[in-house]
Amino acid sequence: MSTEPLVRNISDTAAWVAVYRAMESERPDAVFRDPYARRLAGKRGEDIMKNLKWARRHAWSYTARVYLFDKYIAQEVVAGADMVINLAAGLDTRAYRMNLPASLQWIEVDLPDLLKYKEEILRGEKPACKVENIALDLSNAAARRDLFEHLGSRAKRAMIVSEGLIVYLNADEVCQLGKDLAEQPSFQRWATDLLSPGLLKMLQKQIGSPLSEAGAPLKFAPEDGPAFFEKCGWKALEVNSMLHIGAKLKRLPWFMRAFALFPDSKGTKPKQIWGGVVLLGRA
Q1: 20 φψ region: left (φ > 0), alpha (ψ -120 to 50), beta (else)
Q2: Is 248 contained in some domain?
Q3: CB–CB of 129/99 below 8 Å?
């Protein structure tokens, strides 16, 4: 019997999240369709979903999260974005499944092994736009600044996407990343997911142990919510809670529907169980 941990490293979380996308895609009333998700998830993703307690209960929130990122990306492309920089891209397939202009530069940044695995699975598939994969450990601050400078010089209006990234960083690391991004004038928008301290505490209890054992503990949930980014060069333009979007999409479990009747706090109440997706603009 294998003694290998269920979640070996942070890259395994990408396979796990791909299962959520596959589950939504296979619904007759799916709000998005990712025909590649099941293949990308593989056995590793299926095993994590099967064996990780509480995992399926969070499916609605991942559907809401994907929906919101899709929405922000689509509206920014309409507004004239000529580049999307997908940080810690994981097994994301938006460049293949979304209706994007062929001229759009889509940059995927992640660890070498994960990008290699993804390239192998998607070999033969045609993206909607120009896709460029860049192998880089984003914790290497000097290397990422060099990358941002290079990409910034190639774009007129770039959008940054960091889905499922900053929760694994501490506050100083998140703010430094924000400052590095803000150094490039062409980086106009940044979409990221965000948790309240209340939700972080709950998730640490429910699913935190396997992540911590894999060296990827959940960390970031600022007390001041989206206002945190103001000192890092960014300001919130749009804030949407996953709870309210989950209700709109009719994905909430029955026992959570009453909570969606209350106004969205926009992440300003640290003790509240809140998670959302924030669209940031330059401060």
Answers
A1: alpha
A2: yes
A3: no
- 176 lies in some domain: yes
Output the domain CATH number for residue 80. 3.40.50.150
Q: Is residue 5 part of a domain?
A: no
CB within 8 A of 238, min separation 6: which ones?
A: 72, 278, 279
Cβ atoms 47, 121 nearer than 8 A: no
Q: What angle do CA 47, 92, 192 make, to 5 degrees?
A: 110
Residue 53 CB: number of other CB atoms within 10 A? Answer: 10
* Total count of domains within the chain: 1
- Compute the distance between CA of residue 250 and CA of residue 252 in angstroms, rounded to an integer: 6
157-187 as b/e: b if 16+ CB within 10 A: ebbbbbbbbbbbbeeebbbbbbebbbebebb
Ramachandran region of residue 42, left (φ > 0), alpha (ψ -120 to 50) or beta? left
pTM given for the model? 0.96
Cβ(200)–Cβ(171) below 8 Å = no
Tens place of pLDDT per residue across the chain (283 aa):
456 788 898 899 999 999 999 999 999 999 999 999 999 999 999 999 999 878 898 999 999 999 999 999 999 999 999 999 999 999 999 999 999 999 999 999 999 999 999 999 999 999 999 999 999 999 999 999 999 999 999 999 999 999 999 999 999 999 999 999 999 999 999 999 999 999 999 999 988 888 898 889 999 999 999 999 999 999 999 999 999 999 999 999 999 999 999 999 999 999 999 999 999 999 9
Give domain status of residue 4, yes or no.
no
**Structure-token match 């501490």, residue found:** 170
